Amino acid sequence: MPRRYWNAPSGNELSKRLRRIALKFLRFFILTRENGNVTPKKAICGSKLAEMFGIREVEVWMLISYWREQRVPIASGKRGYFLAVSRAELESTVRQLTDRRNWLAAVIGGLRYAMDVLPDKTPSVALTASTTSTTSAERKGRRKS
């Protein structure tokens, strides 16, 4: 494993607390890959990382994203995260993230369309079940007709 990751900067966009953890987090991935404890077949899940480092799972995702942006090849699969040591190990992660990006683009497109058909201001009458559905008396009256 190349040692160039050992001296990588701990990012400015991370909170002070996560900056203190960031290098330990990276060293964990490097050392566990070197000794064979965390591999594609023995990946580690986000909840386990959160427990180990005393952080929330969302903070694990932030650290993973940070190090990926710094070009550290942290891959992910069905079993969790691991440090990739070959192009093949990283390809499925790149494919998965690309699929997610395409899905998000479609979701954003749908919401933009919804914005185009909505009024600029909130309607003065709130939509509630009583304003959008018939009452039981109205339904009974229809049945008699």
Topology:
Layout: H1 16-34, H2 46-53, H3 57-69, E1 74-77, E2 80-83, H4 87-117, H5 129-132, H6 136-144
Provide an overview of this structure.
With 145 residues, this protein is mainly α. It has a single domain (3-114), classed as Winged helix-like DNA-binding domain superfamily/Winged helix DNA-binding domain (Arc Repressor Mutant, subunit A, Orthogonal Bundle), CATH 1.10.10. The protein is built from six helices and two strands, in the order αααββααα. The chain has helices at residues 16-34, 46-53, 57-69, 87-117, 129-132, 136-144; strands at 74-77, 80-83. The protein has a two-stranded antiparallel sheet with strand order 1-2. A hairpin with a 2-residue loop joins β1 and β2 (80-83). The longest helix has 31 residues, at 87-117. The protein is elongated and about 65 Å long. It starts with 15 loop residues before the first helix and ends with a helix. Mean pLDDT is 84; it is low at 1-11.
